[in-house]
Amino acid sequence: MEILAFGVQADEKPLIEQAFAASRHEVRCLDVFLTADTAPIAAGYEVISTSVNASLDHRVLQTLAAGGTQMVAQRSTGFNNIDLEVAERLGLTVARVSSYSPYSVAEFAWTLAMAVNRRIVRAAIRTRDFDFRLDGLMGRDLHGRTVGVVGTGKIGEAFTRIAHGFGMRLLGWDIAENPACRELGMTYVEKERLFAEADLISLHVPLLPATHHLVDAAALRAMKDDAILVNSSRGGLVDAAALVGELRAGRFTGVGLDVYEAEAGLFFLDKSLAGIADDTLARLMTFPNVLVTSHQAYYTADAVRQIIETTVGNVLDYLAGRRGENVLVPRVA
């Protein structure tokens, strides 16, 4: 069988092709993302694979089902981009990658935190111009300061272990406590207290209706004026317009964003010539204490291999009629 894969990055393509070849199936890799405009390409493909920035709303899912698609294998943990109720009604099987290397995201979150704290981007730009002054580059020790970890699952735990290595005071918030984080010395508190006391806040929760704009205007106002905020989870966790307002008021030492709530149609694409019409994102990127990256926290060779291996396994389970642990919507007999 030939599987159609949407939104494949150049670095991913050989890994995907090798993995499916080893399973004795072929794969056609496309660099375009699955949208209402590109969905007709899937006609005739029983199985397709999508990336995190695909749009699988009712229109796209109806087009896929009408074209003969029966299984969607998403190459990500998050699935807020998929209308699961519509998929179930159409009889589609939907699977995701429930987990991969938590270190990839946790380490990148720390990369963002350290970059904004120590003004790494500004320093690198200066030294390329042979400007070796230190004016405006002063950071601060994180040792002894307080970190607030919002979401203490596998990624949050990995982030916490690094924070423990820095010698930081650990605060956590989650619907369920992680004993491993407790053993490291974490104190679980209400999120309002975490926002108010933390010098560094890092987000590691999924995007659900209950977590949409978890960091809203009130949460931002509660934070310290010199706090650092890092989001490497899902863009919709942060009210970006409210964040712009706080930044305009001169608040926060730094903000590191690997995700953005309206990133679909922007991230993973080259917009250098066309520019962007998103005023909020454009405004965010004008602040010298804000660092935006394009949803690359997961993007290590280790994590991508695990994602692809799990995706191939999900497809093989579907073809064998098995319901694997990663299935979100079951196959309808």
From TrEMBL:
Keyword list, A-Z: NAD, Oxidoreductase
Ranges of residues in domain D-isomer specific 2-hydroxyacid dehydrogenase NAD-binding: 111-297
An example Gene Ontology molecular-function term: D-lactate dehydrogenase (NAD+) activity
UniProt domain D-isomer specific 2-hydroxyacid dehydrogenase catalytic: residue ranges: 8-328
Entry superkingdom: Bacteria
Keyword Oxidoreductase set for record: yes
Record-stated family: Belongs to the D-isomer specific 2-hydroxyacid dehydrogenase family.
PANTHER family: 2-HYDROXYACID DEHYDROGENASE HOMOLOG 1-RELATED
The protein's name: D-lactate dehydrogenase
Organism, as annotated: Streptomyces laurentii
Species lineage: Bacteria, Bacillati, Actinomycetota, Actinomycetes, Kitasatosporales
